[in-house]
């Protein structure tokens, strides 16, 4: 069943991991409940509790907006295009004929031996049109996107570090991930 705002030509619609929102909710509750409880406990006797309640309502409103943004975040794959609605509501539509290749690889988390899958959809000009990170999207969703887009898929067999990916394919990374200087091996 499609709701308003869904892409009517979409073959598939995928959404980020649901556990991300649940974990964020628990963390927010564990952080803010004791803080607001103590502040209210200190301000109720002298009658200065109203600003605290207003601040609590603002936090709850912001949380509600974040919840709506999270549940609207999606990727639609259709026959003629792929569309993405990001967390901040930005809609991006990519025509299928502008897609040149897909790269699927495993990227080490910084400082650990754990890896997450990464999917890069590149355009005919070499720029990344869509990136799916394993922290937010499942491997099955990435493979489903790759299957529905009828373009060559490059599977990188061995996991890479962020530095290795930045040195071999810097155009795949966000600007803030390209912070690693190139070092010469002959020093």
Structure overview:
By secondary structure, the protein is of the alpha+beta class. It has 2 domains: 17-72; 92-177, 2-Layer Sandwich (Nucleotidyltransferase, domain 5). It has helices at 19-43, 50-72, 139-148, 162-168; strands at residues 10-14, 74-78, 81-85, 91-95, 99-108, 115-123, 128-133, 153-155. Strands 1-2-3-4 form a 4-stranded antiparallel sheet, with helices on one face. Strands 7-6-5-8 form a 4-stranded mixed sheet, covered by helices on one side. A hairpin with a 2-residue loop joins strand 2 and strand 3. Helix 1 packs antiparallel against helix 2. The protein is elongated. The chain starts with 9 loop residues before the first strand and ends in a 19-residue tail after the last helix. 14% of the residues are buried.
Indicate the low-confidence ranges by residue numbers: 1-5
Question: Helix count, per DSSP?
Answer: 4
Number of strands: 8
Question: Which strand order spans the largest sheet, edge to edge or round the barrel?
Answer: 1-2-3-4
What is the top-level CATH class of the largest domain? Alpha Beta
| Number of structural units classed as domains | 2
CATH level 3 topology of the largest domain: Nucleotidyltransferase, domain 5
């Amino acid at each position: 069943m499609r709701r308003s705002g869904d892409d009517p030509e979409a073959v598939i619609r995928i959404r980020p991991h649901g556990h991300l929102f649940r974990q964020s909710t628990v963390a927010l509750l564990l952080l803010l409940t004791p803080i607001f409880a103590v502040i209210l406990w200190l301000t109720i006797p002298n009658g200065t509790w109203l600003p605290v309640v207003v601040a609590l309502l603002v936090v709850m409103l912001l949380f509600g907006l974040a919840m709506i943004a999270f549940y609207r975040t999606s990727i639609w794959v259709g026959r003629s295009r792929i569309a993405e609605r990001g967390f901040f509501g930005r809609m991006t539509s990519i025509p299928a004929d502008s897609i040149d290749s897909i790269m699927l690889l495993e990227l080490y988390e910084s400082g650990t031996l754990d890896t997450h899958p990464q999917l890069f959809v590149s355009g005919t000009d070499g720029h990344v049109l869509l990136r799916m990170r394993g922290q937010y999207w499942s491997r099955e969703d990435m493979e489903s996107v790759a299957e529905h887009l009828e373009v060559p898929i490059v599977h990188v067999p061995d996991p890479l570090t962020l530095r290795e990916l930045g040195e071999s394919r810097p155009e795949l990374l966000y600007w803030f991930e390209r912070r690693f200087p190139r070092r010469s091996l002959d020093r």
